[in-house]
Structure prediction request, 221 residues.
Amino acid sequence: MRVRSAFLCLAVLSTVCVIAAGQQADLSVDRVAEGVDRHYNDLNSLRARFTETYRGAGITRTESGTLWLRRPGKMRWEYTEPKEKVFVSDGKTAYFYVPGERQARRAPIKDLDDLRSPLRYLLGKTKLKKEFANLTARAGDRPGMVLIRGVPSGFADRVTEMALEVDPQGQIQRILIDEADGSQTEFVFSGIQENLAVEDARFRFQPPVGVELIEGASVNP
Prediction:
């Protein structure tokens, strides 16, 4: 019985080692990044619920709403909790507005320093190895998930690291952004729907009557 038990333990250990070796191979940063690229480059649109949590300066702030993305470079962040506000881009210009206020802000998308702006290129032209410096990959905290870490191009003076939590299908479930000032912003996505019909009007902003449009480089929600 002891001999059989010993052989059984060896067999189990061998199996575990084979599985672990396979998982390590799958964690090749090139392979993981290419999987994400393939997933998003085949998409025309995306809709998801998001929860955004900011931690910094001794405060924690959580907001939530719905995100829409559509090729080429269009996005809409529609916040519903704890209060309504909208951040929308038609691919060329970004707008930010809080319902009830008398002013809305507008800025060319190319001039934005908002951390959401790189996501407008997620569909159709993703190339993570070009978008991030010092890209690495490791096993995530949840089974089957992988964390891709790096510094996004164009944000090196502001962001120390950005992490993407990716599922086995290459779908991004969470984004964690560590900024140079010590603050951290986290986006968690749920109820993701892909390649659904999204009307073009959702990415246009028409200020309500009596609302003034203010030009500026910052339209951060």
